[in-house]
Amino acid sequence: MTEYPNRNSPSQVDLDGNSRLDEPPVLAAARGILGRTLVGHGVSVQVTEVEAYNGPDDPASHAYKRTPRSEIMYGPPFRLYVYQIHTHFCANIVTSEEGQGSAVLLRAGRIVDGIELARERRGNVADDLLARGPGNLTRALGITKADLATDLLTENGVHLSPQRPNEPIEIKNGPRVGIRLAADWPWRFWIADAQSVSAYRRHAKAKLT
Question: Which long-range contacts (CB under 8 A, 24 or more apart) does 69-73 make?
Answer without folding.
Answer: 70/101, 72/148, 72/149, 73/101, 73/102, 73/103
